[in-house]
Specification:
Pfam families: HTH_1 (PF00126), LysR_substrate (PF03466). The protein is of the alpha/beta class. It contains 10 helices and 11 strands. A 5-stranded mixed beta sheet has the order 4-3-5-11-6. Strands 7-10-8-9 form a 4-stranded mixed beta sheet. A two-stranded antiparallel ribbon has the order 1-2.
Length: about 300
């Protein structure tokens, strides 16, 4: 103990004292502390003996604080609050980060990989803003964005290629078995074409069938690629999607590629963040994790 620092009463006794002052009842204080009623009474008796004064008046069904007890507990509470604040300040603050992605990128690629992210970076609270609208780094408080298109995306931004857009056709293996390979005979006419907002089917069919082909008159249109892919997994028809969106489903046998054809449309997926980020360290960590996971 530092020289000149007065001897302190039992800290355990002080803690019990503070709890008892809130309940004014030994039994209720004992329940909060997880000890016996007798242990609480013993701690209070020991503290009073150590201080040389009474802290409580014992009444038939309750306790009442003495004048000394009332004055003492106000200061003891402040002391415990200071200890709690000092302890809290030792713990690292959670690092918050907002990432803006398209709904399809969120559902088909990011969410399945979040367990790996949280295991690698348990101290980062990630907020995922899934929207087709172009988020603003300033007004939406976005730290990192995954943007689809071609750079440049704006002044003062760091841009790195995350995924090349390689469009492939996919369908449920069960549907392919039922209807036959779509690239044989006139089998394509038997399949519904599942469209998304990009509407790549005309370009894809032109590339897959340079001599022309009769496609099915059945078309189902979705505003999200992820919905078209979900419909393909459910055996509703043929969908087009970026290969990296459907690779997990292909590996798991939920989808298959009935065509070798690949379509590149000149727009890719980029990782974009301000050159002067608001939270430099977590931004660098999340960028690094995304690039590693994408590779």
């Amino acid at each position: 103990m530092p020289e000149g620092f007065p001897r302190l009463p039992s800290l355990n006794g002080l803690r019990v004292f503070e709890v008892v002052t809130r309940h004014l009842n030994f039994r209720l204080a004992a329940e909060e502390l997880g000890v016996t009623q007798g242990a609480v009474a013993q701690q209070i008796r020991g503290l009073e003996a150590e201080l040389g004064l009474k802290l409580f008046e014992r009444q038939p069904r309750t306790l009442a604080l003495t004048e000394a007890g009332r004055s003492y507990v106000a200061n003891i509470r402040r002391a415990f609050e200071l200890i709690a604040e000092a302890t809290e300040m030792l713990k690292p603050e959670p690092r918050h980060l907002t990432i803006s992605v398209t709904p399809t990128f969120a559902s088909r690629w990011l969410i399945p990989r979040l367990p790996d992210f949280t295991a690698t970076h348990p101290d980062i609270d990630l907020r995922i803003l899934a929207t087709d609208r172009l988020s603003s780094f300033q007004t939406d408080a976005v730290d990192i964005a995954v943007r689809y298109g071609r750079p440049p995306f704006g002044a003062g931004l760091n841009t790195e290629l995350l995924f090349e857009q390689v469009i492939v056709a996919v369908a449920s293996p069960l549907l392919l078995e039922k209807l036959g390979p779509p690239d044989e005979d006139d089998n394509l006419t038997r399949y519904a074409l599942l469209h998304d907002a990009h509407n790549f089917w005309p370009q894809f069919l032109e590339r897959a069938y340079p001599g022309g082909v009769t496609a099915s008159a059945k078309n189902i249109r979705f505003n999200q690629t992820s919905l078209a892919v979900d419909a393909a997994v459910a055996g509703q028809g043929l969908a087009l999607a970026s290969l990296f969106f459907v690779q997990d489903d292909i590996d798991a046998g939920r989808l298959a590629r009935p065509f070798a054809t690949e379509l590149r449309v000149g727009s890719d997926f980029y990782l974009v963040s301000p050159r002067k980020p608001r939270h430099p360290e977590p931004t660098a960590d999340v960028r690094s994790w995304l690039l590693t996971a994408a590779r």
